[in-house]
């Protein structure tokens, strides 16, 4: 297909969520899907429906609520294609169809490895068996859904002649998109370009379907390889927000899109992405997955439009084009300071949150506004980043079974760190406990564990300053796990970093508890019996 339009296929909710510790709740996935629709992505790979009942339910919800009608603010007239991933097996393909069938534009994406190393050591199948399985799977998918995508896994290390054969066969079986993955990020841009060009030239029927690219970042070449494949004739690019994904991640959507936009005259290509939303969606993904954005991250990092060198600053004052090849506002990275303070009203607060892409209503808005007032009393100026952190902190995707009422810590070099915590429990009552820890955060977490009686292990703990200055709002992200279950994550924001730490830990604990119906098991209750602070270990 010879056109200048490149479809953007976002797989943040599928491949992105496969990054260790990046799992999202169903509510978070729905919020991200809506944001991706507003961003203007053409295809949302909503998940892997056969992976779990929860994943299937999330895909079905996204198909029904995001894939039926355009989300307000979406650049395109139509809702995005909602896609579900499936191995080339009947069970997977039928589960994928069950997940996406409620969308106006559903797609089944099925895959099978084609490299010799994968076929021999993973599939333990010969080439004729792989060919037959691929055709059978695509034919089944096409009998259910008019839009079918096929991926020859590890195409970057596959024999080109076998690729031409299997791709021609799946086109005959009904595939409408051929996705060519560099699954392990092995190829170089010239090699990947030649692979795509070879497929288009040597595969019967290839010019009648969409050729897609899906590149991983193991050598830091995912975006470069994706661009090389697009320049060779591919017209769909699979990517993720912030480049999250397996191992070193995927091609970064924001980098790929801005490369196409910034170098449009050279490339002669375009996308349907509203680039002004990139920073906002990037922050949403970061909070939903508890994966911080590196300051030097291209396009969306805190330093992407920062200049410290005197020479650079002088050039910027004279003409911004000296050191910036794109405008900050083009990606939603405006640095305007909000004129909002302790005298601002709820309407102005709500309006600005809506403009930032965080509309709040009812009790959630009331809590966020109260938190804003408390923050405004402590800070001279309130920035957009502060508001986003507050909105995210107050909008909880899981029931707040335990909430923080009061907290006091004592620490220093002269004695043991001690924390007294008062929580509002699921029984409607207040509960108080004191604990000793290796430091103030450890003491707080031990006190919370004793009150909740639902032991979790702390896997990750990250602190970020949301804004500058000594009165900066601090944001804490944690990842916790109960027993051998999948991990849960939470975040909290406050000018007091210990309070932010407590909020984050409670959010993760509440998420884990919600999977158990909000009630700890008898085993958990016994194993986390209350401890007398005077007898607690150091």
Give a nutshell description of this structure.
This protein has 538 residues and is an alpha/beta fold.
Explain the overall architecture.
- The protein is of the alpha/beta class.
- The protein has 18 helices and 14 strands.
- Helix 2 packs parallel to helix 3, helix 6 packs across helix 7 and helix 7 runs parallel beside helix 8.
- The C terminus is likely disordered.
**Regions with little confidence, pLDDT below 50 for 5+ residues:** 521-538
Strands of the biggest beta sheet: in what spatial order?
A: 1-2-3-4-5-6-7-8
- The CATH topology assignment of the largest domain is TIM Barrel
How many DSSP H or I helices? 18
Structural class: alpha/beta
Helical residues, percent: 25-40%
Please report which band the strand proportion falls in: under 5%, 5-15%, 15-25%, 25-35%, 35-45% or over 45%.
15-25%
Number of domains as seen in the coordinates:
4
Note the main sheet. 8 strands, parallel, barrel
CATH classification class of the largest domain: Alpha Beta
Radius of gyration: 25 Å
The CATH architecture of the largest domain? Alpha-Beta Barrel
Shape label:
globular
Going by CATH, what is the homologous superfamily of the largest domain?
Aldolase class I
């Amino acid at each position: 297909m010879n056109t200048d339009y490149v479809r953007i296929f976002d797989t943040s909710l599928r491949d992105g969520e496969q990054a260790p510790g990046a799992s999202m709740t169903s509510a978070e996935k729905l919020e991200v899907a809506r944001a991706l629709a507003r961003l203007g992505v053409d295809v949302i790979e909503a998940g892997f429906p056969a992976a779990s009942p929860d994943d299937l339910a999330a895909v079905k919800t996204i198909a029904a609520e995001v894939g039926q009608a355009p989300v307000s603010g979406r650049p395109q007239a139509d809702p995005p294609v909602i896609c579900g991933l499936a191995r080339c097996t009947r069970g997977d393909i039928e589960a994928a169809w069950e997940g996406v069938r409620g969308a106006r534009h559903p797609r089944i994406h099925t895959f099978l490895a084609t490299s010799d190393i994968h076929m021999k050591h993973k599939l333990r199948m010969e080439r004729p068996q792989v060919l037959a399985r691929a055709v059978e799977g695509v034919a089944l998918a096409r009998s259910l859904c008019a839009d079918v995508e096929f991926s020859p896994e590890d195409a970057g290390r596959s024999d080109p002649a076998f690729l031409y054969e299997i791709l021609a066969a799946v086109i005959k079986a009904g595939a409408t998109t051929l996705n060519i993955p560099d699954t392990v990020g092995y190829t170089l841009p010239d090699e990947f370009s030649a692979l795509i060009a070879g497929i288009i030239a040597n595969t019967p029927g290839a010019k009648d379907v969409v050729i897609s690219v899906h590149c991983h970042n193991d050598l830091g070449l995912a975006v470069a390889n994706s661009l090389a494949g697009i320049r060779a004739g591919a017209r769909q690019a699979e990517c993720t927000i912030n480049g999250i994904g397996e191992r070193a991640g995927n091609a970064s959507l924001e980098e790929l899109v801005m490369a196409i936009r910034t170098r449009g005259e050279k490339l002669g290509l375009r996308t349907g992405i509203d680039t002004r939303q990139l920073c906002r969606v990037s922050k949403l993904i970061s909070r939903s997955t508890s994966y911080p954005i590196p300051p030097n991250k291209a396009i969306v990092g805190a330093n992407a439009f920062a200049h410290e060198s005197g020479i650079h600053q002088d050039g910027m004052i004279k003409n911004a084009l000296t050191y910036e090849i794109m405008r900050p506002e083009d990606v939603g990275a405006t640095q305007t300071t909000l004129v909002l303070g302790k005298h601002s009203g709820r309407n102005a607060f709500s309006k600005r949150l809506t403009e930032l892409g965080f509309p709040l209503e009812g009790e959630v808005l009331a809590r966020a506004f109260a938190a804003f007032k408390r923050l405004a009393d402590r800070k001279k100026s309130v920035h957009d980043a502060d508001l986003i952190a507050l909105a995210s902190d107050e909008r909880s995707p899981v029931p707040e079974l335990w909430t923080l009422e009061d907290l006091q810590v004592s620490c220093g070099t002269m004695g043991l760190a001690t924390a007294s915590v008062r929580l509002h429990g699921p029984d409607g009552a207040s509960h108080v406990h004191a604990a000793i820890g290796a430091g103030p955060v450890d003491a707080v977490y031990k006190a919370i564990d004793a009150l909740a009686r639902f032991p979790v292990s702390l896997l990750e703990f990250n602190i970020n300053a949301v804004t500058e200055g000594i009165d900066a709002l601090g944001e804490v992200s944690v990842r916790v796990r109960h027993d051998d279950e999948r991990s849960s994550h939470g975040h909290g924001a406050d000018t007091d970093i210990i309070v932010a730490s407590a909020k984050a830990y409670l959010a993760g604990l509440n998420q884990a508890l919600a999977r158990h119906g909000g009630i700890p098991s008898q085993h958990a209750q016994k194993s986390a019996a209350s401890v007398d602070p005077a007898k607690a270990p150091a």
